[in-house]
Amino acid sequence: MSEARAETTIGNSEFDRDTALVPRGPGVHDAELSAGWTIFGAVNGGYLLALAGRALAEALPHPDPFTVTAHYLTASRPGPARIRTDVVRTGRTMSTGQASLVQFAEDGSEVERLRVIAGYGDLGALPGDVRTSAKPPSMPPYEECLGTRDASGASDEVAAMLGTTEIAGRLDVRLDPETSGWALGKPSGRGGMRGWLGLADGRAPDPLALLLAVDALPPTAFDLGLSGWVPTIELTAHIRARPAPGPLRVAITTRNLAGGFLEEDAEVWDSADRLVAQSRQLARAPRG
Amino acid sequence: MSEARAETTIGNSEFDRDTALVPRGPGVHDAELSAGWTIFGAVNGGYLLALAGRALAEALPHPDPFTVTAHYLTASRPGPARIRTDVVRTGRTMSTGQASLVQFAEDGSEVERLRVIAGYGDLGALPGDVRTSAKPPSMPPYEECLGTRDASGASDEVAAMLGTTEIAGRLDVRLDPETSGWALGKPSGRGGMRGWLGLADGRAPDPLALLLAVDALPPTAFDLGLSGWVPTIELTAHIRARPAPGPLRVAITTRNLAGGFLEEDAEVWDSADRLVAQSRQLARAPRG
């Protein structure tokens, strides 16, 4: 991956600065949605999930997201936002909370962007047993995968997409060539997307960054030969372990494109071969 | 499956009577949690999801659940319950709502059992395209699968479990013999559960019954050689099409048992070979 810069740490990185919260009152934080995390000009859903996740970590007695569901109500835009959190229940090992992220109309009224419900716990307190039968995704080494920032040979459509996709500068994505044919006009048709993923400035992954990671690769719809915007209706992520430092591997699959909707199932594996996150989202299929 | 009784229809069945709602005010319904849907004496999570789903269908302008997430906060018991719904957003093709199901402590105070957030739409209005690449689960015909109500040869532990599992009388479950070895003390260790599923009184499936179906089979933990209660923390179900009449096929898999938690991924297929529901839940792994 990119060389980690000496000054980049968890807490001091692009991702941390762009998810910073300003306390405004009990259960209320202000935030600034950064233009650095947009795709097609809209703010990335994983970045929004991480922002809400950070606010919930402030509100709940447990530090780590275990299961987070977001419903994306309206398209977020770069600029000011406010996050309200409510504690639903606190227990000994887990607590449950809700969050609502709003932005502001021209007349100052609030427009809700996403509604979140989440269960939090302490990943560090879990027993060490691992009986995972899933296998890490099979893909070539990082050096043999293709950077999304390298648009040489890409179709005009893909180049135009990358031009409005600021997030490409914040992430270090290297796609398995088997799932990147779409960029050259040759999608595999299988509905998969696999790649190495890191933050471009070298910040190590943590549970909040995993909320970003589950929605950071190009949509599987591209590998199905569809193009255009794939708006997420709902996304649920399970964070199962603190990730080890180093690059993540993300594999996303779509098996049920029907009736104008599709699911995207993501797995995130860390450098220690641990399945650290699983997610599923329901999205509208592009018409293209 | 069981012969459908002439008088059993959608709207007039055990499932419909046991999910009946009594309006109590704007966005408030009373319900009676039936002892008929308990497992180990606790009320089944899919039944609770269907009950909340019915209340949300009353509250929202769209009829069908598209994506429903429930966080199970405390264990529900048979008896009176109240469901409050809130409309989060209404749009042209979809609307979003929340629900809270509570029961009552001895002093009359409310204890919240589950918190739900859901997106609703109109399954009948979706385009007819189906590009599903998933395949229906491979399992023997209904007649060659094993009824959970037939406990002959079952271990004492399984027989005891069935004795406190009233839901076995409400459902017609026939398990694939490959995933029912646990009942005879010989779990496969693979973490799968597959079976035919219907309502015992012959009521045809509908979207609400699919919310029940995703959590109706025995837990995959049994096939992993674990026994005991597998409490659901969170369950998200996507309903993708109205099911055709006739028996459902349900396949559930667990691939990540680690740190004291496991996921259960369910697929529900209808008699027309359509993938009508997908779900994932995060549950605590039994210690056994």
Explain how this protein is built.
- The structure is a homodimer of 288-residue chains.
- In chain A, a hairpin with a 2-residue loop joins β3 (38-39) and β4.
- Chain A has 2 domains: 14-124, Acyl-CoA thioesterase, double hotdog domain (Porin, Beta Barrel), CATH 2.40.160.210; 142-284, Beta Barrel (Porin), CATH 2.40.160.
- In chain A, 14% of the residues lie in helices and 36% in strands.
- The mean pLDDT of chain A is 93.
- Chain A is mainly beta.
- In chain A, strands 1-2-6-7-8-5-12-15-14-13-11-10-9 form a 13-stranded antiparallel sheet. A two-stranded antiparallel sheet of chain A has the order 3-4.
- The radius of gyration of chain A is 18 Å and the shape is globular.
- The longest helix of chain A is centred in the N-terminal third of the chain and has 15 residues, at 45-59.
- Chain A contains 5 helices and 15 strands.
- In chain A, α2 packs antiparallel against α4.
